[in-house]
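ARCHIVE CARD
Drawer: 12
Card no.: 0347
Subject: one protein chain, sequence and derived structure
Cross-reference: see card 0346
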Amino acid sequence: MDYELKGRTALVTGASAGIGAGIARLLADQGVRVAATARRVERIAPHANLTALAGDVTAVADLERLAREATAALGPVDILVNCAGGSRPTTVDADEAFWEEAMALNFTSARRLSIALLPAMRQRRWGRIVNITGTMEPRGLNAAVAAKAALHLWAKGLACDVAADGVTVNSIQPGRINSEQILEKLHPTEESRRAFIERNIPAGHFGEPADVAHLVAFLASSAAGYITGTVIPVDGGMRNFAH
């Protein structure tokens, strides 16, 4: 499928594995020149259209540097995919440092990178910001869920402010996608996966990174220019059942 993105530029965070890696690879296959960033930069798969940048999105200095280096390597960034994130289950007595790290990883990094790259998008009157977020139906206290809730509403507000400048802002809620975090931490055994699928996923299986990546590519395309301020689940119907 051709999303007509050849010649565009993109910055994708959290691109060393799982969903982020799938997004970076698909965009690169579509002819997008991609700057892919992660702390484990050595795990970013080589590709002719892909530039690997090391960075920790929880560090303000790294965020500023990544915005500069991506622009220097590619030219103005057309597409920003904020994919870096991670679950942070916690208890009511967690200390402030725990909450600050969870917010920095799951909300503040996306906000800061977006603000850094927005001026050039608005000047060119074309830009796409896509946030990879998470569930809004917590089963317990999780600092990442609170951070992603902040990201959803911040993105909706931003979408209103920049729509007239040709910039769209959308969020994607992945369900259970086959990735390192899901397969090694949340559902580490085949038995636990089967049990969860039977109870919660009408589609009957976990998704793949490509399921999210294709939606990102569509939202980044000119065909999606009238779609903004949305939160779109990619979860095989799980949201209807997994309360």
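Annotation on reverse: The first helix runs from residue 18 to 29. The chain has a mean pLDDT of 93.
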